[in-house]
Input
Amino acid sequence: MNKTTVPDVLRAKGQNKLAMVTAYDYSMARLADQCGLDMILVGDSLGMVSLGYDSTLPVTMQDMLHHTRAVARGVDKALVVADMPFMSYQTGVGRAVYNAGRFMKESLAGAVKVEGGAAIVPQIRAMVESGIPVMGHLGLTPQHVAMFGGFKVQGRGKSGELIAEQAGQLEQAGCFCLVLEAIPPGLAGRITKKLNIPTIGIGAGPECDGQVLVINDLLGMNDEFTPRFVKKYADLSVIIKKALTDYVQDVRSGGFPREEHCYRED
Ligand code: KIV
Output
């Protein structure tokens, strides 16, 4: 089985839609990789989904390296993309290249993802020149949540032009792909037409070159809030809670373990 490469992703533009999900550990990554996904993103949504923070800001390099390594061990086919955490690339070019290099060397990621526009173009250029493939991310960039005042739709009205302009700058800087999050579909469609690199939408409508969802949302593992743009393909929270409740009952009633779960004496 051939591993998906960055040139494969670039070639998909206008040919076939790209499917990406997040994963944060080995066992989920193994399952996801058997389902024909093009890319698996170790998102810094890890912080909210798996670590229980209320934003992605506290996520560290150590968290991301650890989880990316686990995901990469479970993946044979998809391109593994690692999210660079808040403040691992914003503070300078040297630091950005060093930290991105750690994802490639220590975690065996195939690419990194960064959030933001013009302000991080020098970092993106330097990473790409060092041989590190970079995915961009514009629109609702969760690392800017403090500036946005919450997880809010971006790019309505005139502010959409700035996002479109920055999309062009990220392509020029060498990004091989661009995530567009929580922006109006018309804007995402215009950006997708204008760029030669694929766009991957999350809450950005059907005209993007591909889609990404957080795997826990897609599988219905979160029984609290579900964003409007999520389609739940399963309701695992119900299945998991039923299984665990049945297990507790069995343990208490003596229904588990039974003979078939025990070793023979001889
Ligand atoms: O961290 C993440 O999971 C992401 C995706 C939602 C694109 O950045």
Remarks:
- The radius of gyration is 20 Å.
- The pocket of 3-methyl-2-oxobutanoic acid is lined by residues 22, 41, 43-45, 83, 137, 179, 181, 202, 212, 214 (CB under 6 Å).
